[in-house]
Amino acid sequence: MRGLLVTGTDTGVGKTVVSAALLAAMAAAGERVRAHKPVLTGLDDAAPSGWPPDHELLASVTGMCAEEIAPLRYAPAASPQLAAALCGERIDPAHLLASVPADPGRTIIVEGVGGLLTPFADGYGVRELAASLGLPLVVAARPGLGTINHTLLTLEAAKAAGLQVRAVVLTPWPERPSALELSNRETIARTAGVAVAELARVMAPQPDALARAGARLPWRKWLAASAPPQPAAA
Ligand SMILES: Nc1ncnc2c1ncn2[C@@H]1O[C@H](COP(=O)(O)OP(=O)(O)OP(=O)(O)O)[C@@H](O)[C@H]1O
Ligand SMILES: [Mg+2]
Questions:
Q1: Integer Cα distance of 28 and 140 in angstroms
Q2: Nearest CA owner, ligand 1 atom 18
Q3: What is the C-alpha to C-alpha distance for residues 70 and 113, in angstroms, rounded to an integer?
Q4: How far apart are CA 13 and CA 143, in angstroms?
Q5: Where would I find the beta strands (DSSP E) of the chain?
Q6: Nearest residue CA, atom 6 of ligand 1?
Q7: What is the CB neighbour count within 10 angstroms for residue 215?
Q8: 40 CA distance to ligand 2 centroid (A)?
Q9: CA end-to-end span of the chain
């Protein structure tokens, strides 16, 4: 499977914005793309920021329908495991894995849920899904205070499972970064020996604005080590 799994250091750190920017930039460059969000929770919560819900933003940059992107959707704003339980359901890891579209002609961006250790079921979370899919990670992280610890913990958790990490993406990266933000970027890169990229602030959830911001991320390099796309079956 050619693609990336975009995880984050926390919920609300920019996974969807990073995923949408990558998808928009890839699509603008002629790449055939798909988005996938394994489980969407908090469906009934109004977005405080004015940005659309994850599956709708990802639909806007891929041309897919939102429900196809996120087949499992729950109203409670809780971990996927708890949100499902509150709705009288249980997430089956095999079913979750099978719901990820395996289209060899397309590049897939899977947006994780919460952080890397967020559970879908006992013993099976985002980290296990990434391992099952064999997708390398991109880690969305805040640029400011607290990000060193959260990011290094996430990278350690990825390493412990043998997952490849293509990069950390600090988002939204300010036009004029402070000394703290510059130091955070350098400290994470040096301590973990990982590539650290920045995603500029995208002013509005528009595909062209997302594509411009995403085009500055080295996504071709991140995909290069993945399986090449195969021509779609006739
Ligand atoms: N590059 C950016 N440009 C503009 N806004 C950003 C950027 N990165 C993050 N944000 C802001 O952060 C908010 C949270 O981002 P996002 O929804 O992508 O987080 P998330 O990690 O996907 O959250 P969830 O865990 O709910 O899926 C956005 O609604 C937006 O306001
Ligand atoms: Mg999201």
A1: 22
A2: 14
A3: 11
A4: 10
A5: 3-8, 33-36, 39-40, 72-73, 107-111, 119-121, 124-125, 137-141, 165-173, 196-200
A6: 172
A7: 15
A8: 8
A9: 19
Please write the tens of the pLDDT for every residue from 3-52: 999 999 999 999 999 999 999 999 999 999 999 999 999 987 766 678 99
Q: Whose CA is nearest to atom 12 of ligand 1?
A: 14
Cα–Cα distance between 95 and 191 in angstroms, integer? 37
How long a stretch of residues is the chain? 234
How many angstroms does the Cα of residue 114 sit away from the middle of ligand 2? 8
In a mutational test of the pocket of ligand 1, which residue from 6, 10, 16, 61 has the highest number of ligand atoms less than 8 Å from its CB? Answer: 16
pLDDT tens sequence across 97-136: 999 998 889 999 999 999 999 999 999 999 999 999 999 9
Q: Is 37 a catalytic residue?
A: yes
Q: Give the closest residue to 9 by CA, choosing from 170, 221, 119.
A: 170
With contact defined as beta carbons under 8 Å apart, do 106 and 99 qualify?
Answer: no
DSSP 116: T
What the chain holds in terms of domains, given with CATH numbers, is: 3-223 (3.40.50.300)
Q: Give the contacts of 194 (CB within 8 A, at least 6 positions apart).
A: 155, 165, 167, 168, 188
For the question of whether the overall pTM of this predicted structure is more than 0.85, the answer is yes
Q: Which residues contact 109 (CB under 8 A, 6 or more apart)?
A: 3, 4, 5, 6, 19, 22, 23, 33, 34, 35, 36, 58
Which atom belonging to ligand 1 lies closest to the Cα atom of 17?
A: 18
